[in-house]
Amino acid sequence: MENKVNAIVVRCVDYKDNDKMLTLYSLEKGLIGAGIKGVKKATAKLAFAAQPFCFAEYVLSVNGDRNTVVGATEIESFYKLRLNLHTYYCASTICEFVLKCAQENFADEKLFVLTVNAIKQLNFGEKNAKRILCEFLFKALELLGYGIDCRGCAVCGKSCKEGELSFFDFEKGLLICEKCEYSGVTRILTQTAVGLESLQNGAQLNDESYNYLLKFFNYYLEQKTGETLKCLPQLLSLQ
Ligand SMILES: [Zn+2]
User: Which of 18, 51, 175, 179 has its CA 20 to 30 Å from the CA of residue 201?
Assistant: First the structure.
């Protein structure tokens, strides 16, 4: 039996002498594993389809629970991502997020569209790369049921200000000001709280603020799912 899926390569691992094992994130079936043969030979016609970030229509031969790529039509290679280390690590972080948080054999159109759009924005340099990644993580966490309400303090509605303490309710995903602090909330950097509000309002931030936000999202993800994004420290260590 053959199956066609629109998918992006989120992981590729060498397999045997000339083959690779791909993890595809697809519109139709969420995450799927698929082998692809002979792609390390110089003459391989399908070599492009085994590259990280390749977005293509894949034709899969299905045998039991094993998929093999037998054809592919490129939609977008997203080749430019590889020309800049910042965009490369931002895109790698998005792929790692999908790999760890999306489901196998389960279509999630909204998360798929969000993922492809974020990678497209990174590839074409439409905005600051870390901004694109922060917006992706913020919206993707919401789609997974871990939305964050950061329109000011969740109790009194007041905006977070520099010079005041800020807290976060990790269980409910809420920002809390110093006057409304209650038991069970965790103190966070006010810069992070201000950054979260700015992100939601669409306001621009500086590079340092994006770094605080990315560390926060990684910690929040760990609290919610037990997973952390290992590409993020590499991104944050870049000059
Ligand atoms: Zn308050």
Answer: 179
Q: How far is the CA of 203 from the centre of ligand 1 (A)?
A: 22
pTM of the entire predicted model: 0.95
Among all chains, which residue has been given the structure tokens 């994004």? 229
Q: What is the pLDDT of residues 12-47, one digit of tens each?
A: 999 999 999 999 999 999 999 999 999 998 889 999
DSSP state letter for 103: P
Within this chain, do residues 16 and 38 fall inside the same structural domain, yes or no? yes
Q: What are phi and psi for residue 98, nearest 5 degrees?
A: -60, -45
216 part of a folded domain: no
Domain that holds residue 65: 2-76
Instruction: Say if 214 falls within a structural domain.
Output: no
* CATH number of the domain where residue 64 is located: 2.40.50.140
Instruction: Give the Å distance between the CA of 103 and the centre of ligand 1.
Output: 37
User: Distances from the Cα of 126 to the Cαs of 6, 117, 133, 147, in angstroms?
Assistant: 24, 11, 12, 25
Burial of 175 (0-12, 13-18, 19+ CB in 10 A): buried
Find where tokens 């905006």 sit: 159
Domain presence at residue 160: yes
Q: State which residues of the chain have pLDDT below 70.
A: none
